[in-house]
Design a protein that fits this description.
Elements lengths: L2 H4 L8 H14 L8 H14 L2 H10 L31 H6 L12 E3 L3 E7 L1 H6 L1 E12 L8 E6 L8 E8 L2 E8 L8 E6 L8 E12 L8 E4 L9 E3 L3 E7 L6 E3 L2 E9 H6 L1 E5 L8 E5 L9 E4 L15 E8 L7 H9 L18
Parallel strand pairs: 1-10, 2-11, 13-17
Antiparallel strand pairs: 3-8, 4-7, 5-6, 9-11, 12-13, 14-15, 16-17
This protein binds zinc ion (2 copies).
């Protein structure tokens, strides 16, 4: 006897007709009123299947109303075990198939443990790196709504479309084959839930915009390219367990006077031969310490491309009271010099390894 026959109906019966027939028969066949318990069970069973459009469709296609595996399959709308699929000997791996439902619950999207980091370049001057500076940046972040725990709803019920599975099975008949495909339920986007009441805090959006001010300091001695990390200050996302970090990358603006290497500063300085030999005063301008510094060289054996060092006038060394050095790279240019023969003899005396001129050579002329 078909399920339709159990209710005294034919295959084309409407849902309304099914409901009415069931109502009538369940009354008259109720065991409490002397009805046959077996018949009563049959009527209930027929109604259960036929009143559910999906199960009815399955029954119409396959002729099977087997439910033996139903509970094992987490409420799937048909019994896989008894499905005469007519699939030419194809076998389903029942366990594998069942596992696709993730222990019969709605499928959870695989989340990455951490979202990507976001790096902001912070431009700073050499004196910022020398003296330190406060940095304040505004970040616009999305935060999971704490009222609804990013569900967007305060009250939910099981999704009608998928009966809470999050997945729907659609059945297509292709000639003798019945093909079934599983896809996320479109009614609930795979969550298996139906929203009854939107969260009033986020208006159902699950996330809220949050303008956050991040504050930190460039410390004296931080290097060019130093990175300051703000843990998990990127936006929350359904794709990540935890948001990524906001990273500030300290970038030193180019300084025209000084080159910064390690803890030391480097600069070029051009002098004459007389400065090199006899000494000079120089003023270092725009030093990152904010002062003009007066330095002196007492004269001596200073050569072109030689380096004079001003100890402690470099950059601060992080977490110490010490400083690097200032390296002054010397370029020597000629003075216009004339001298008397007495001066020339005196000059010869300061270069003891100088050799006298051989008068046989052809004289050169300076252009
Ligand atoms: Zn659903
Ligand atoms: Zn909310």
């Amino acid at each position: 006897m078909s399920l339709y026959e159990s209710l005294g109906l034919n295959k084309n019966a409407s849902q309304d007709e099914i409901r009415k027939a069931y109502y009538k028969l369940s009354k008259t066949n109720h065991p409490d009123r002397g009805g046959d318990p077996e018949k009563f069970k049959e009527i209930n069973h027929a109604h259960e299947i036929l009143s559910d459009p999906e199960r009815r469709q399955m029954y119409d296609m396959t002729g099977s109303d087997k439910e033996s595996n139903m509970n094992n399959m987490g409420g799937m709308p048909f019994g896989m075990g008894g499905m005469p699929f007519g699939m030419g000997g194809m076998h389903f791996n029942m366990n594998g198939f069942g596992n696709m439902f993730n222990n019969n619950g709605p499928q959870q999207k695989q989340k990455n443990p951490r979202g990507p980091d976001k790096t902001h370049d912070i431009n700073a001057t050499l004196s910022d790196f020398y003296n330190g500076r406060e940095i304040t940046i505004n970040v616009q972040q999305q935060r999971a709504c704490s009222v609804c725990s990013a569900t967007g709803s305060l009250k939910t019920d099981v999704c009608n479309g998928c009966k809470g599975q999050g997945m729907k099975i659609s059945i297509q008949q292709m000639g003798p084959m019945i093909q079934q495909t599983m896809s996320p339920c479109s009614d609930c986007n795979g969550s298996g839930k139906r929203i009854i009441q939107n969260c009033p805090s986020c208006g159902g959006k699950k996330y809220k915009n949050n303008d956050k001010i991040l504050k930190t300091n460039i410390k004296p001695g931080h290097s060019n390219g130093h990175k300051i990390k703000f843990k998990e200050e990127c936006s929350d996302s359904p794709d990540y367990e935890k948001p990524g970090d906001v990273i500030l990358n300290l970038v030193c603006k180019k300084n025209t006077n000084f080159e910064w290497k390690g803890n030391d500063l480097h600069m070029n300085y051009t002098i004459s031969i007389s400065d090199a030999l006899l000494g000079f005063n120089m003023i270092v301008q725009d030093h990152p310490n904010g002062k003009n510094i007066n330095l002196s060289w007492e004269g001596g054996s200073l050569q072109h491309d030689g380096i004079l060092i001003a100890t402690g006038l470099g950059m601060p060394i992080l977490d110490t009271t010490r400083f690097g050095d200032l390296h002054i790279h010397i370029k020597i240019i000629n003075n216009k010099i004339t001298w008397t023969s007495e001066q020339r003899i005196a000059l010869q005396s300061i270069f003891p390894d100088w050799k006298n001129i051989d008068s046989d050579g052809i004289p050169l002329k300076f252009n």
